[in-house]
Every structure is written in structure tokens, then in C-alpha cells.
Amino acid sequence: MPTPPRVIIVGGGLAGLAAAVRVAEAGLDVDLFSMVPVKRSHSVCAQGGINACNEVARQQGYSEWMHFDETLYGGDFLNHQPPVYEMAYGAPGIIDLLDRMGVPFNRTPEGQRDLRMFGGSLYKRTHFAGATTGQQLLYALDEQARRWEAQGKVTKYEFWEFLWPVLDDEGTCKGIVAQDMRTMQVRAFRGDAVVMATGGCGLIFGKSTMSVICTGGAAARCYQAGAALGNPEFIQVHPTAIPGEDKCRLMSESARGEGGRVWVPRKKQDPRKPNDIPAAERWYFLEEKYPKYGNLVPRDIATREIFYVCQDGYGVGGGRMVYLDVSHLPMETKKKLAGILEIYEKFVGDNPYEVPMKIFPSVHYSMGGLYTVYKAKPDNKGMVLGAHENMMTNIKGLYAFGEVNYQYHGATRLGANALLNCIFDGLFCGLSVANYAKEPHGKPAAELDAGVFEGVVEQEKNKVRKLVDSKGTENPYKIHQKLGEEMTDSCTVVRTEDRMKQAYNVLEDLTQRYQSVRLSDTSMWTNQNLSFTRALGDMLLYAEAILKTAIQRKESRGSHYRPDYPERDDAQFLKTTIARYDAATNKCRIEYEDVPQPLVEPRARTYGKVEAEAENKAGDKKETVKA
Amino acid sequence: MIAKNPDSQNSVHFKIKRQDGPDKPAYWQTFDVPYKPNLNVISCLQAIAANPTTSEGQETTVVVWDCNCLEEVCGACTMVINGTARQSCSALIDQMREQGFGSRENPIVLEPMTKFPVVRDLWVDRSRMFKQLLRLKAWVPIDGTHKLGAGPKESPEMQDERYQLSRCMTCGCCLEACPQYLKDNHFIGANAIGQTLYFNEHETGKNLQGERLDVMMEPGGISDCGNAQNCVKVCPKEVPLTLAIAKVGRQVTVHAIKKFFMGK
Do B155 and A107 touch (CB under 8 A)? Predict the structure, then answer.
């Protein structure tokens, strides 16, 4: 009897768990790999909520179409429309499913699911569980995955690190090589399809809001093995975080969604305490510049405004801080934010119920990631359910779901669309994975010659040996620190050619220094030093792709803001950036691919900014919304 | 090699219990980390990782610890700090210095949790906690991921109670503080009792209530709780654990009586 097909899923956050549940439900066995117990994955950090059209919003004029359109407008039209369409129209069903799984969504007095405002929309369409929505959703999917684990359909490999995809002679993915983070054993696993659900790459920027495992290492390894990156230059900087020594802690957009206001003293370096400054002497700069959206403009816009306000000397005490104020809100509303207000109080020591919080932007999310394809319906309104290619990378049999998938968010992600994207990928495209794995594509993984796998195991063991045996003098943590500082300075809120080129030179130097890196721990038991240093090598390569693609995109779009090219340039850059690894030069090669716009015409992305609207009217560039 | 810092005022002093592997002996090392405002234990461990040199100036290996989110929501970085189990990300150095810790005479002491086997240094194996969730059927038995409409309605009061229970991040602080939970016994522990209530209170989750309560009646079940109430005091997320113990205790009593009369 032939061995039944198996599916490998790398990453146990929302996308990985949703995929595990969906694939197991379709009858296949799943091997789930994670560097942490899946319940501790980075999805746990998401706070604000998850977007979906709902009955209340619908009866006020909202629709799935508008959710779809908002996502494109937010993403500055770099998103592919059919997948976004499918996601927006699938969102209400996903909320219902999560509800059935027992997620403790906040409730109205009648017992209905409560809703809150969020950035980039004028309607209440964000569902939430306190201010720890990501945690609650992750737990619900963790529970469902555990149920499949109890039935033997899902096998977890926790504290295992993904090292490399295994490809057969045809270049089809047939498994992975991974390392046990305790015993340090390196071994191969066979799988008839492999799903990467490995999240973002925030650690490349040193401090970000991301968890310590979000190095982008797994994606960078697939990239070196031949998978292309899509739009790596698009990195989201979240406007409101608490700067810290070890990381920046997110202060959710839900604070503003519930009525929180961003302000600075009108007088530069005003020495008064915030509560002593009367309303007339406070500058609510977002509300002033964007009367329509106010504090709920998309993240890239809020971030830039905060950045420039501080650069102009209006930051709190003249520094790099502005106030995020929820102290005026009624107690009932503050209670809905308890999860994040508690974080602020614990880590800063001030009481945000009474005193405005001091915040500054921080790297938060990678819109770019592994390049994937999909099969659109003939009318482009969505994707074909169960089609093999949905969210498959350019390596056959290798899929990318969740944040590591570049698909849904274009040049900026709207708040509360990430949780949706992760679960949607897992559930909708999970079926594609199952369908693909059930059909033959060359020899089944189980029957493939052992040599195919052993070769990759050897390659990875050699890499380990090389690092352990290195007699160099370079400290990996110091290289990482420099990398983070350089990337944050050159390639986040404001990007200029000169500064990025300077960073590119530094990166070359760091890559050189990495060649003579030295481990302080050479043991073969729970060697975190080795794991980090190996990932650092991958981060350097990923950083090269980010910098190079950012330098080459000579326009401003969404989160990618170039003062030297301040306008969006659709003629040249309404295109996906595809970065491929070139082993000969150890650098990326860049290609561009048109982004078709079959359903919505691109329009100017102004969010009703006072000056921009005036200019728009003068130039008679009317915003058109298809409805 | 870095010279010993003579100025103790500008350093934070640590005493760290180390162990190279599960069967290896434990030993202590001390470290000095240059003081800066707004440090936490994690950023000090990161500084030690970047420069693994003891206070005596001896080069050593990187101290191993488990962590992920660094914002006290994943539960990974739990360890015993100055005698109490807590997350090392939210253990702030300025606060500890105010309490008199961090000097050479009174260093900040980091130890692995004692109720779980050590993997290495400060990293312990907490898989027992996840196994209990498996045993307890800690899930809502839905029919599948297909579109079957919304879930049950819920009152804001019930949502509030369940939300508080659902914030449990399986960190193990409650077990570290519990006098009944030991490395080598079978007590199920407070967090598992909290999760039992969480699922028993959900309209659909309650369909498995009987099976969960059967587990609670087995050896190591809820009757092993000694009511010390330490769990609720140390829980970083203020999960109402003693409320859960009381409610699940009552559910078990009713369940046992029913079983007795129904002869099952």
C-alpha cells in the first residue's frame, strides 16, 4: 500500500495553525514545526482586532466591497486584487467560525459581537477581544490544532528550527531539513507539500515590535534555495510603540480606534506636565491635517506625521516622543483597552488611565515576503477554491501563508487586516495545499531516494561545523546591533538614496565581518548562540534585498517614502518587485512585474488631507470609487 | 577580555544559576552589566550574551533562556527572579534597584523554575502543562471549519469571565508557587483547572464537560489542591484561579453525584 501523503507546515502562529487544522480536516497528516511552543508564537502580540464586514456596518452602508477597496487604497494599489477580494468577502465567515471556536469576542448588552473603529476606515468593522485579540485568536486555533493532535492527525515538532527546503531533481519541494534546538540534531523530514508560515523579519531592524524569533531567517533560507521575494522593500513602521532597550512594545491602534488622540504641546519644549497643558495649547496635528480620518489615518501616514513633528522640534521635551492620550475616555471604554494599558503601566511605570502615554513609531510588519501566485476566477472576483497554485511560491510544492506571504497588503497594511490574512490563508489556501499533496507530482516524498535528503542534511551540518570551528574574532551580537541601527536609520520612515547607499556599504562591510564570526558557545546541546549566528547570516542577505529594492524603487508609495522622489509613479512602479538570489554574487537580482488592476482603478491616496484635497480639486483628478 | 568594572554603582550585578544540561550539576556565576535607565532582565541577559564574561573577568558561554514576545503575553521567559517566578521581560531593573537588588552585595538572582526539568541554564521543559491541556480536551468541539453561521450569543458578563480565564499564557507561575504541584507527582495544577472552567462555560465547549470532570476526578485531580491560594497571588495576568478552583470543585461534586445515581 502506498504511504499516504503528508504535509509539512513551518510556523505555528495563526497562519500555520489555521493551515494545520484545514489540511488535517481534509484528511491528510500534518507535521507542524515551530521554534517555540506554538501557543507562544508571535501572533500572540497582535492586539487591536480583526476586520470583517458585519450586519451593523452593512446597514450603515458598509460592504465587503468597501473592505476590499479600503485594503487596496491603504496598500496604494500594489496589492493583487483577486486574493484581496476573496479575503474581504471571506472575512465575515471567518469571524463566525472563530466565534464558534469560542473566542471571547467583546459583547454588546444584547450579547452580539461588539465592534470598534480602526485605521483606514470610516466604519466600525473591527471585531475584538479586549486589547489582546491576537492572543485570543491564536489560542482558539491552538486549541483546534490540539484537537487534531489528540486524533494523531497533527504531529508537533516544537523547538525545531527550519533550516532548508528539500527539492527533488525536478525542483519540486519534497520536505525540509530542520534542527532540534535542544539536542542540536539535524535531520530531514519528508513532505508532499511544505507551507512556510514563518512571519515577519523585524529583527533585521534590531529593535521592532516583533518577537525574537522574527528574524526572517526561514524566508531568507527559501530565498537562497531559489524562492523569490516579493516587495521586500515594504516594511511597516507602526506609529505608536513604547521604545525600549530590548524591543519596542506596541501600543495598539485600537487606542485611537476607541477615541485616543495624538498630540504635542503647541509650544516647543513646553516644560509643563501634559495634564497641566490646556486643550487650546495642545496640537492635535493628525486631526488638524486629516479632518476626515483624524487619528485613524493609515499607519504610514500617522508615522510620517509623528516623525516630522518631532524632527521640527515639537516632540515632547524636544525629543522623539509624542503623546497618545486616552485619559479623557470614559472608564467603560478604557476597560476595553486594559490589556495594552496594563503593558504601558508595567513597562513604563506611568498610569495611562490618568496621564497621556509617550510613544514613538517602530518597525512593526513586513508587507513583503516570499513571492507567491494564485489562480484568479475568470471575472477576477476572487480565487478559485482549492486550486493548487493558490499562494504557492515559484518553487513547486512550497507555499507561503500569513505575514511571510507578500500578497495582500501592497505598500501598507491596514490595521486589523493581518490576523484576517493569516487565518484566511490557512483556511482558504490550506485546501489548495491538501488538494495539491493528494495528487502525484513526480515521486511521492516517501519513495524518494534518501540521497536527496541526506545531501541537504550534510550541507546544513557543514554550515554548523563551519560556524562552530570558526577561529574568527567578530562578535555576532555586535554585528546584529550595527545592522539594526543602520537599517532603522536608513530604510524605515524616510528613505533617501544617499543614506541607503551608505547603509548598503555598511552592509557589505558587515557581511565581510560575518565571515570571521566567532561563537562563544561551541557545545552541541541547546546552543542558542549557534542558532542566532546562523540566522544573522540570513538576515544580512535579506537586508541586502530590502535595501537594494528600496534604492531602486524611485517613487513614494505607502510605507516606502522617498523625499527624493516624493510622488507615486504608476507608469514605472505600479509593479511588484521580485528579488531573486544570485549565488554567484551573493546578492539579489531585481525584476518587476505589472500588478493588474482588473476591478478598481488606482486613485490618488490622500485620505482627505487638507492641502492634498485642494490640489486634487484644482487638478480635476476626481477620486472614483466603483461600487 | 574585558577588565573588571571597579565602579559598582554603574553596574547591575547578577547571580545566575547555571546548568549545562539536564543531567549536569548546577553551578553559580556572577555577571556585571553596565547600568542604563529602563533596563529589564531580558536586556541584561542580551548584554551578557553579547559579552559572556563573568564578574571575575572569565570568559564563559552564553546564558541560555527561553523567551519570545518580550511583552508579557507569550509566557516563554518565565524564571525565578529573586525567589519569585515571573516573566523576565517585565522584571524592570530600575524597580529592582529601588527595592535594593542589583548591588554587588545583593545581586539580582536568576534561577530556573524548580517545578520543571531543566533543559539548560534558565530554560526549563514545561511540556507537562501542554500535555494536561490535551488530556483535558481543552477545546470547543466544533463540527469543522465550514460556514455554519455564528457561534452562540454570550452576555457581556460571561464574556468578561471567560476572557479573564482565557488570558492564561501557560507560563507556569501558578505551579511554581503551588505547594502541591511537584516535579514528580501528578497534580494537574491551577492553570489546567482554570482552562477547564473556561471551556465548561462555553455553550458548545460544555458538551465535553463530563469528560473534563472525569479527568478532574482522577488521581492528581482537583482534590489534590491544598487551597494555599498562592496561585492567584503570583498570576501575572490575574486569572481568577481560585474562583475557577471553587467553581470546578462544585462541578465535580455535582458530576460525581450524578454518576453515582446514574450508576456510571
Answer: yes
